[in-house]
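Hi team,

Filling in the usual template for the complex we talked about on Friday. All components are listed, including any nucleic acid strands or ligand strings, so the model treats them as one assembly.

SUBMITTER: L.P.
PURPOSE: interface mapping
COMPONENTS: two
RESIDUES: 1021
SEQUENCES:
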Amino acid sequence: MRRYLTPVWVLGCLLMQAVSPLQAQHDLGLYNMKMIPQRMFQNPAFIPQQKFYLGLPVLSGLQSSFSVPFSYNDLIERDAYDSVTFRVGNFLKKLGNYDRFRLYTDVDVLTLGTRIANGKFYLGLSIRERISQHIRIPENLGNLLWYGNAAPQLFGRYANIAPSVNFTAFDEWGASLSGYAMKDRITWGVRLKYLSGRFDASTIRSRFDVYTDTSNYHLFMQSDFEFRTSGIDDIDTYLDQPAGRLVFPGNHGVGIDVGATFRVNDHLELNASLLDLGFIRWKSRTMNIISHHPGEIFEFDGFSLQDFIDMLSNINLVGQKITDSVVDLVEIDTVYSSPYTSWLPTRYNLGGTWSFNEHHHLNLLLNGVSWHGRLSPGLSASWYYELPKILGLMVSYNVYDRRFTNVGFGLSVHAGPIQLYALTDNLTGLIFYHRTRGYSFHVGLTIAIHDKEGSAPAPTRAPDPEATPK
Amino acid sequence: MKKHIPIVTTDFPLLPALTRWLPLLVLIMMTGCRKDFQFDKVKDLSWNPDMAIALVNDTISLRKILTQGGGERHLVIDESGDISILYYYNDDALRIRPNDLIRMVPVPFSYSHTITPEEQAVIAVSDLTLANVPVTFSLPGTNPDLRVDMLTIRKGRIRILTHHTFANDGHLNVRIVNATKDGSQFSFTVSPVVAGNTETTVDLAGVKFDLSSSPNKVTAEVGGVLKQTQTNLTGQQLAADFEIRIDTVAEFRGYLGQHTFPGLQDTVSVNVFNNAYTLGNLYFMDPRATITLYNSIGIPANITIEKMVSVNTVSQRTLDIAGRLGAGAYIQVPSPQPPPAPWVVRSTEYTNENTGNAMYDFFDVKPDHAAFQVTAVVNPNGPALNFFTDTSSFHADMRVKLPLWGHFDHLTYQDTFDFSLTRPKEIEYLEFRTHLANGMPVSGSMQVYFTDESYNRKDSLAGNDPILIRQAPTDPATGLPYPGMMGIRDTTYILGYNRIQNLETVKKAIIKAVLESPDNGQMNVRLRATQLINLEFSARARLRKNIEISH
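RESULT (copied from the run log):
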């Protein structure tokens, strides 16, 4: 036992070093919930235990996770009389530690899968609504608005105050095929996906530097940003479109998921998957916002004397006029009907499972999301308990979004053909929501049918040659 | 046979506890949640930003300063950039119009004729032509010396009042022998013959009288035709009274007589400095005045400057220097040669040298108004050939030029503008910085006063430490700043919370700047249009503002 645990420990330590800062998509727990067929969406090589499953429309899978820079307690202070104070300063401090607002939501509209070819392959079909959002609000934008440009955080310093918004919402129509190889020591899987984009906001470049000269208070600005959007500019008329246009807005894309598992021996299995490698070509209702003079430095050095004197007739409006004048310096071009391509947030999973026996499994998972040139890793270590065909329980320790206190929990219960599952990567966050900076949950109801008692099960695992008595 | 489900018993002992307490736990969480998301008692936020911003960055040339008040028409800038301030009287200050010189008296003449038996005999069988009767009369003017050799009427008429004793279909013919219209002999008819009083008017516009052979004398011929009638007209009478009235003349040749135009005067407001220099002392090295007369009327004239007065309405000082202009007080303007009449231009310039420093005294008053009065005498030497058209004129430009070259002290500029700070409590601290780079050879001190509506002083920006404007280092030999050198001054003023609160009732701000040339106002300097002053004002403020959340 020890000879196996030592390399696992070493690997775990190395992973802990490698994944800082850890900012990954949540839903790490599902990866190793072996009883839940929907874990195929985490790795198409994870062939379900059931010979057939049907996800009830909408109910079969609802996954949502978000993380923000602050917790309830970070932002809100409530005194004995229930008076509420917004702790803006504390909020900005938290923003300094972590400035991302991330949201992932997947809704399974329809999922089904079945063994085919006498269990040699597994075929899956799915329709899912998916939303991914990464918003970055730099601390210095908050500092500028709240503390002013002469605050120590900004005075005489270059500060990028440009937020970055990446948001995509699309429908995914997928067909997967999984199978076995090397006498079932290897499973493989691939899912091909047609994508129909609904909304998108992509930040290609996002730079807006502000500098206040401490000697003369001149304001220097340098902007270089490009935002591309589809379906957002005229969202108020979105529902006025014909029904066919609502389902297929004309933003077509393709994607692929691939995965594989390799059973080293009876105890150790390694697995990996690459998900959402794909793109969407956005053609419908596009609007791009681009800085007119990218990289050019603008200086606000004051008004003419006459304009200033004119402003003094109502000095309370001086602030507004200064703001208007500064904003006017930054010229923005708006381009309509310009198609563009956006890549999906691509996810990577690399994991290993140590199975003590049929019931107890120890899992380690390194997860990552790559989007708009940024890799956000996460780490999960979990213990999974399974009563075959009846119950699956999972307790996990997860590290992501620079949070190191995430204890996850998962449960799947079979009652006849009905399987109910619920899991979270941050159980304490759901309970002690005052203190958490994010949540994640995944629930679903699936019709999942196992092999009948006594019938030949699918070849799920080949016998370990070393374990075979000589 | 019932299926054994082991989870409850052995494999997962926590589950029974969870199933028992989970509903209670969820209930507690839900209760807590509901309270946590009630925000009906949210405290206002106190926003305390520290802001720093450049307020003014302006480079102002002397040209801009002097023209901001709309005074550019009072500036003359030569090629080297030297500036002169120009006071001038508009063209109507002294203008003699041709029709001011000729006033015609209405001229009457009459015609009458009685039908004789012989004429009656003719009428009974045929039409009767009445012989032309010549009538000669003069065209007199209000000036008895007026001599008209040629005259074209711009506006005039002949009024004919007939009072015949019978009626007939015939008519009267009238022909002005020495008048033409459009190149043809000028004549008209009055018809028909009507018994009793009848009035007819004939327009004389465009009628040209050529009286060169007999000046002022006009000859008219009156005749007519009576139609055949069986009515006995013997003893009946034709009678008509004529009156020629000439209102304005389009063209004239002759002699207009000697006229004197006394008391031609004008007053001009001088607004280049507004009241900026009323409180200081200034000495212009080379002030000068020029009177230029333009004559396209064919008439000689003599001009006498009777008054040249500078008026300072603030100090109530006035000074008349007309008596010190010497020979320059008299200007002879000859007649142009006809025709076409070119302009005759005569200019006389007054300087300190030719007026015994009268020009210096004139401007030492620091006039905000300047007035003058002249007398003009035309044809001062008696009869001459005069001519004009109605586009001719005799007028004067009177200009005073002040090259900005001299020395001055306590030259005070003051301006008032509206200023309102309605929420001073929101400003906790205000720091005001100035950076002044002065390229002019003048120094000064500046202060901003804050007053209420009644100009009661509430505070001042700089307190007892006015904002200094350093002069650019200046070459005493030329009076010009050394090239590329500027006088630089940085100052910081701080208004604390209490002082800011005192500004709540402020409605006006008064900028007062006191300027002087180097060496305590004794060095002569030249001000040029290209000289600059760079102003940089910036402010840093800490605000204190309550942001209401709950409303």
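MY TAKE: Residues 50-68+409-547 of chain B form a domain with the Jelly Rolls fold (CATH 2.60.120). The longest strand of chain B covers residues 237-255.

Thanks, L.
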